[in-house]
Structure formats: C-alpha cells, structure tokens
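Appendix B, Record 12. Input sequence as logged:
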Amino acid sequence: MARPKSKQAVSTSNGGSEKRSASSATATPTRQSKRVKPSLSTTSTPKKSPYFEAESSLSEAESEIENEASGYEDEDQSAVSAMSTPPESEEEVEEVDHTSEDDKPRKRKRGRPSAVSVTSVHPVKGKELWRPGVKADLAPGEQVFIKLPKARQPGKTPYTDDTIHPNTMLFLADLKENNDREWLKVHDADYRQSKQDFDSFVECLTEKIIEKDETIPELPPKDLTFRIYRDIRFSPDPTPYKTHFSAAWSRTGRKGPYAHYYVQVQPGGSFVGAGIWHPEAEPLGLLRRAVDRKAHKLKTVLMDPRIRKECLGGVGNDEKKVVKAFCASNADNALKNKPKGYGADNPNIELLRLRNYTMGRKLKDEEVVGIKGITRISELIGILSPFVAHLNSVVMPDEEEDSSDEDEAEGEEEAEPSDE
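Logged structural output:
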C-alpha cells in the first residue's frame, strides 16, 4: 500500500515539472515578443512631427532654452520618455500603435501669435482700422497691431512759451475734419502737445495783460483756459469737440460776473475780444439802466479812435455811426422790440435792446503764429481795457465809484425842470 502512494507522489512531482516546463515554454515566446514588439512599434508608430526633428538638430544649449520657454514642458518630456523606453506589456504597445498625431500634445510656439500689420497710404475717411466695427478680413488667429501716430515734429521752428507753434494750427485744422472721439483718442499725442503749447502761451500772455490792466490777477492757465469739449445736450450740432483753443481773463479768472478779455486761437477764426457775454438778469438790468441814465459814458468809450479803428471796422468820427456799428456787432440775440420798462421812443433804444455788450477783432493766422503774436494780442487788449473798465463800473462798481455815481444821479434830478 505504501508503494502506490509513492508512485502517486512521483507522478505529482512529475506533473508539476511538466507544468513548469509548459509555463516556461509559453513564457519564452512572450519574452521574445517583448523584445520584438518594440522594433515593430517603432515602425508602426506615426512619423514624428517636424518639431521633434528640428529639436534633434538643435544644440544642447538651444534645447534647454526651448524647454524652459515651453508651456507644455512636463507633457513633452513624458512624451519623449514614452517613445525612448520600450513598453513593459502588450497593452502598452497597443496604446502606442493606436495613438494618432491629433491626440498627441502639441507644443506651443514661443513668442506672440502671428500678427499682420496692415497700413493704408490713403485710408478712406470713416473706414480706418482703428475705428470700432471696421473689419480687417483676417484669418483665424491673426491680429492687427496699429501703431499710434506720434506727435508732429517741430521742424525748423522750435517750441517756445511765448508763441503759438504752427503745429498747433495744423492740429486744430485736422480736428475740424475729424471731429469724433475715436480720432482724438488715436491722436492724443498731438492734442497734448498742442494743448501744452497754448497753455504756455496763455501763461506768458497773462503777464502782458496785467501790464495793461492792473485789476487782472495772476492765475494759472487751468483757471483761464476753456475745455475743448462741447456741451451737446441742447445743441443740434453733435460734434463733441471745439475746433479752437480759448481763454478768458477777468478779476476772477474765466468765470465770474466781471467783464472779460477773451482770446481765441483757430485756423482762419482767431479772435480777440472783450465785454460781457450773456449776462444774468441782474447785471443786464444794471447795464440797461446805465445806458438809459448815463449813455454818454458808454458812447465816450466807443468814440475812442483806436477802438473805432480796430474793433468797429474803422468807422468815422460820427456818434450815430459808431453806435450803429457797436449794435450791429451784438445783434445776434438782441431784442426785436423794446425791453420791459422802457419806451419805444427812447433815444438809446438800440443800445437798450442789446443782451450782449462785447466788441473785438478777428485776426489772421499770420498775426497769431510766431513771435509777433503775443505783441499783437496784448496791444489789442490794451485798446479794449477802457471798455472793460466801464462795464465793471456798472455791473460790479467799487465803493468809491458807487458813491460818486449816486451823487451824479442826484445832481441830474435836481437840474431837471419841474412840471409846474
């Protein structure tokens, strides 16, 4: 009974050796397939991208720079290691075989995306590429980079504080042709350069005006110059900007109840003036009262030969013609009928109908631009200073002037004959 048991044990051991040999026999082709499959995978693997081919030709230093600049550094290194090391199993080999170029991570190129600089020698007005909504017909991924224009070069004429540069006139002329926000935003450099040129001129002109009129204080340009933006809320003209630079001087700057000196710089429309423009009801009433009671004071100022020559068209020494010329220059918003409280037969009815009391003179561009401009403008302001002084004595009289006017009015009432 013992021997059959030993035979069974021997047979069991032989069966185990047979199984081991079978397993070893089956394992041997598997190892061979592992050695052979990598060579097959290299042939079945899709062709490498030009990126990796170019990378092999680069030097070690350039490849290090390329890896540092890439945004997919970790993914590229894993992809390269996967291609260089053989797979450990058949499943891994199959994954390599079935991958396509589209599934592989693509390496991002260095630098900015491709750009197309589009320039036009003669752009159509309103179709410039910098305007919103204008199409450039670009391919996907392409961009347009528009170089902002720089400020004009001064050329042979340098910028100086006491002159208006010709480039300032050129900018205002361009603004008149392109009066919209997009254009001014693109040409901001020209605007700032021209505005600085005018502000420096105003600062120098203030010193000249103070020499002509001691009542004018020394104020910075920001308290004297007007903004370039128009108030279009109630205007039929939708253009957003003024096409001129302007400034005003009075005892309180560009604002206040006093009479002003006014300077405007504009190509073909420069102007120097003085007076009270659109006064409130109270100062307007004081002006009409002064015309009704003391019209001779205003007429005396208007009869000045220099005022008649420079501001009233060179009219002769005739009081009626002088008054008519003054009223014609302020006839834009004058009343057609008599003002309230005054009769139509008043001898000064033409002056009483006025709602502005201003005068001035237009200047040519040659009189404004250059070294002679500040001299010419200050000369005209000196001629207008008696007119401004008279208006201020009416609307904002000093204490001494007010007491003397009351005494004069009482004397006139006493001199009038009685009705009895």
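The CA atoms of residues 161 and 200 lie 5 Å apart.
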